[in-house]
Amino acid sequence: MEIDKVEKVHSIGYRLKDAKVTVDQDFKFNVAGVTIEGTQGEVNNMPQWIGKILDDNKLGTLDSPDMITELKQALSKEKMVGEYQISTLDPHFYIKLKESMKALNRDDFDKVESMMLELFRMRRGKLVKLADSIKLNSELYNKLTVEENIFYKTIYDNSKEFEKQITGDLNEQRSS
């Protein structure tokens, strides 16, 4: 499966998850028979996509994670674990990060993008080495983002296929 398709599915799933929204202004909406209402000062749990609409329209404040801080922490952890280990990232880390980057001004966006690419390149290098040597297990799976899991499986499968192409006839001769 292609990474962009998996990412799209997970993005939709992420937006359906509940998030806390602080209501800034009273509202009541009825859309397709579903009523959503809030009173100023309340903190409500609602699907993230609804919270985003309220936030965009200044009716509420969506409590979203500080992804810049999470990125800095992830980068620091990745450097600390060393060359042959990989730190744990939330499965939706890159999805949330890219979503939060949309709100940044150009200078901040460039700085955050630079940090994101540094983290990405470090992890990609480690994943290539790991995928060339071990099959994905549950411990490793739980440390990776949804995109990294697809990448890992692709590298692993391609590496095994390449190995078969190189050693194919040798294995048959050895068994004779």
Can you offer a commentary on this structure?
With 176 residues, the protein is α+β, with helices and mostly antiparallel strands. The protein has 2 domains: 48 residues, no CATH class; 102 residues, Methane Monooxygenase Hydroxylase, Chain G, domain 1. It has 7 helices and 5 strands; from the N terminus they run H-E-E-E-E-H-E-H-H-H-H-H. Strand 2 and strand 3 form a beta hairpin. It is elongated, with a radius of gyration of 22 Å. The two termini are 38 Å apart.
Chain-wise SSE layout:
Layout: H1 3-16, E1 18-23, E2 27-31, E3 34-38, E4 43-47, H2 48-56, E5 60-62, H3 67-81, H4 93-101, H5 106-133, H6 138-141, H7 146-175
Helix pairs in contact: 1-7, 3-5, 5-7
Summed up, what is this model?
The protein has 176 residues and is an alpha+beta fold.
> What is the helix tally?
7
Work out the count of structural domains.
Answer: 2
Corresponding CATH architecture of the largest domain: Up-down Bundle
Distance linking N and C termini: 38 Å
- Please give the radius of gyration in angstroms: 22 Å
CATH top level class name of the largest domain: Mainly Alpha
Order of helices and strands: HEEEEHEHHHHH
What proportion of the residues is helical, as a percent range?
55-70%
Coarse morphology = elongated
- Uncertain regions: pLDDT < 50 for 5+ in a row? none
